[in-house]
Amino acid sequence: MAYILLRITIRYSPATYFTVNTMKFKIALLTAALVFSTSAFAQNYAEVGDAGQSIATAQDTGSGSVTSITGLFSGSGDVDFFNIYISGGIFSATVSSSTDPMLFLWDSAGNPLLFNDDYFGLQSHIGGSFADGDYILGISQYANGYGLHFADSGWSSDFHGTNSYTISLENTSGTSVPEGGSTLALLGLALCGFSWMRRGNK
Ligand SMILES: [Ca+2]
Ligand SMILES: [Ca+2]
Predict the structure, then answer these.
(1) In the chain, what are the helix, strand and coil shares in percent, each to the nearest 5?
(2) Is there a domain that residue 19 lies in?
(3) Mean pLDDT over residues 144-166, rounded?
(4) Residue 165 Cα, ligand 1 centroid: separation in angstroms?
């Protein structure tokens, strides 16, 4: 009944008809934009407290695409481990920081895959092609754990002050919910929005 009354109002008021349909169009566009932004635009994961420095205490990185991680070297010997999911081709991680960082990548069992200290000046960069799956990304300050080594060994108490960092990532997503779950939910909302808009135009 409410729907019929709404349609009557719309039929007898051209200005209202235009306003309602404009609103529907904007909602549909907004929802579609949310879907697009979730899958295509930057999504930062910020370290919560202090990420651990072992396989068991590595920090999960949320859900959906993760295109950067921000964090802090907060005390003596601080090394930060993050659980990430790599998919869809070439992975890379590039760090920008106020210190001399080092980057590591291990498989989910802690076996060494990649290491770099200085790539752009003192800043680090690692990259390569890997099978889809869970990996551990690590960052330390030179020369804490210099070189390739297993994730749960080789750390020292080297410390060069409290320093922040940003790691830019390619083809990486978080690990706490199944890949693409939030994107699919938003895609469903967008389809509902477009369906609603089309119904209103009949
Ligand atoms: Ca930290
Ligand atoms: Ca470095």
Answers:
(1) 30, 30, 40
(2) no
(3) 92
(4) 10
* The pair of three-digit structure tokens given for residue 30, joined into one six-digit string: 């907004």
* Total tally of structural domains belonging to the chain: 1
Average pLDDT on 15-23 reads 51
User: Does this model's pTM top 0.90?
Assistant: no
Q: Do 89 and 144 contact (CB within 8 A), yes or no?
A: no
74-96 pLDDT, tens digit per residue, is 988 999 999 999 998 899 999 99
Q: Which residues contact 61 (CB under 8 A, 6 or more apart)?
A: 45, 69, 82, 83, 84, 173, 174, 175, 176
Separation of CA 190 and ligand 1 centre (Å): 38
**CA–CA separation, 44 vs 68, rounded Å?**
5
Dist. CA 95 → ligand 2 center (Å)? 9
CA 101 to centroid of ligand 2, rounded, Å: 4
Higher pLDDT, residue 19 or 61:
61
Residue 164 inside a domain? The answer is yes
